Automatic annotation (TrEMBL), chains A, B, C, D, E, F:
Record's function text: Catalyzes the conversion of (8S)-3',8-cyclo-7,8-dihydroguanosine 5'-triphosphate to cyclic pyranopterin monophosphate (cPMP).
Occurrences of domain Molybdopterin cofactor biosynthesis C (MoaC) (ranges): 15-147
UniProt keyword GTP-binding, yes or no: no
Organism from which the protein derives: Marinifilum breve
Example GO BP: Mo-molybdopterin cofactor biosynthetic process
Protein name as it appears in the record: Cyclic pyranopterin monophosphate synthase MoaC
């Protein structure tokens, strides 16, 4: 059976030592969705149609959150992200946030990708909360992550 | 049909002016769940049984996130939270984070309660990611919010 | 002759005590401009025409900066901003950032309005720096500030 | 004609991927000036004469701002600055802030040098705002930037 | 026997609800000392004599830390500080940092005063660490705290 | 006689340029103690016995502080910490916080280890301040630091 990497034998939390790992190109993609009422979706579509700010504000918030991940999550390492991308798109029943984060480092960037998705969706929630009383955020998950050796 | 409070007629984003509202006691409760594999749940249960740190770390991260909400979400106001509570509990298929935030102010604290839940669950994700490759975060939503006049 | 409010008789820096002032509605408006080459302006105009993100990203950065002012400027007080607005507009030789910040408090919000303008213009600089090697930021100044008694 | 590095073909903002670049020694120097009234300059000169804190506080704020640049400017990368220097000097009509920032990294430090200058000048503004009602910040620009291969 | 205000009956940590308290003028004073070798003290005295930056940098860091206290200490409330003062003075065997913080609020500012003293002394440590291998920080404590009704 | 690394010949503060140093594995250990009354110790022991949160909250705060060091201390460099560990243990007259921080970098991590200890102890202070009016923090000091070549 597996073992928590952040938890020692006495059950105490711990920051994992990544100092012995070789720096690699790390990439992670995550996603999540906010479920919206039809009326809200219509408003967002109208805003998207006239290229308003709703999705852009959420995307910027997501990128900023990726950079703040180690401040948000206590046992996360500080990283130097080389790329963060957040794309929000309207779907049938809500808005999906797809994120991708890359770094060159000794530990992966999945928490950065997941934080970016979470905060982008919370930002959409914030902008829609005056018109939609039934929003919920669903399906925040990792899509994939890779590590590639440096040339 | 409703109208976005943060978006003007040209579709541009905007911080709402709350300066004319009367300060009231604002309270909001939110929740969310991270779905975990049986093996992961067993590890968390063992950790909880010996009163290890897993749930506590997530709760602390959630409280800290409530205080950082205006930094995370671009159009949120800065607030002086008078109380933030995050409780994580193991359920059949995962861990639920229940949050409650209070302030005395001119705008509500639902984004604070939702941010607290999101970050608490991301923190559990972080601690379990070495043992569980199928986690996802579901059902982040507001439970209720109230405003009460100051005496 | 005047006297620095933040500097004592020995020349030492000091945070002013605002505790004895009565809370009032404080408002300040500031502005600033980034001078751009014709080619850069054309690119921004094209982006603005198709309602791209350039000006929006700068506006969001400016709003966020208004909220961070007390962290940026050592002797500034923490404030609860009730409204922050940043509008970027293309002019003949560059982009102007106009800002407005409001709070209810014991000290003014001019530094918040000025920080918002500065960071909005720096953000435009960042986005244009691959195409324009002669940018400069000019004329960051206060337009006006007011204080009004609470009703 | 050039192309914005941060903006894609649809006009959407984007963090540039710097992961394929080779780390180099990056250095940038920037400058800016705050225009002050004669009386204000006299007060600053007196403070400087008795080696008071005015210029030092601004310099410290500038150094701190260099380290916060990626938090202020949405599409900036996080960097590990190896050196940040901010020097404020009184000139005929105001105070000039000269900055220099170095890092070893995959992207330049010009935004860090420019942010340091901007925040140093805003800090002087803050300290002088009780005595000078006509301040403005001018000429924030890059002086030069270099990249040198690592030995 | 007393009871921890932040800890519930099950031993779990908790942010205290201060929402029912009446806002009062809160003030706290704290102190602490860093013990230095004779040679280091001599260098600081020389720097102080020519009104160099050592003590000023520490004082500014302390003021900034007072404003960051709720971000540093998980169960602290966010506050609007109306005044923060940090004075460092050379004594026989080291440097003493005396701090004073005021706010109008529902909870005291002793943690802010203590954080300011701690960070001011850490900043002196940082500046002296190349010359002194035996520094230690001692006696960080509250001197007094008061609450006064608003008029 | 030694010389301050952060202070130039005119007594001005300066961030040291670490760009020419070769990255090495840096490790530092620090410690500090908070002196508590017998009654407080008893409450902490009871909390520790039932594995309550008191010591865990302090440890998490310390780890977070290690990551924030360059934001707290003006002339500290930003670093990528590979490991941060904070252990709090009850002793005869108080609680000791032992910390260890590692990074791969061009400058040491002693300030990070000392900041972690300081903030962990301040966090204990915060949680005990309702029951103990005589706390003081003592003996914050470096235990050792090492640098090792990368393989």
């Amino acid at each position: 059976m597996g073992k928590f990497s952040h938890i020692d034998n006495e059950g105490k939390a711990n920051m994992v030592d990544v100092g012995d790992k070789i720096p690699q190109i790390r990439e992670a993609r995550a996603t999540g969705k906010i479920i919206l009422e039809e009326q809200t979706l219509q408003l967002i579509n109208e805003n998207a149609l006239k290229k308003g700010d709703v999705l852009t504000v959420a995307e910027i918030a997501g990128i900023q959150a990726a950079k703040k991940t180690s401040d948000l999550i206590p046992l996360c390492h500080t990283l130097q992200i080389t790329k963060a991308e957040v794309k929000c798109r309207v779907v049938e029943d809500g808005v999906v946030a797809d994120t991708m984060v890359k770094c060159i480092g000794q530990t992966g960037v999945e928490m950065e990708a997941l934080s970016a998705a979470s905060v982008a969706l919370l930002t959409i929630y914030d902008m829609c909360k005056a018109v939609d009383k039934n929003m919920r955020i669903e399906g925040i998950k990792l899509l994939d992550k890779t590590k590639t050796d440096l040339k």
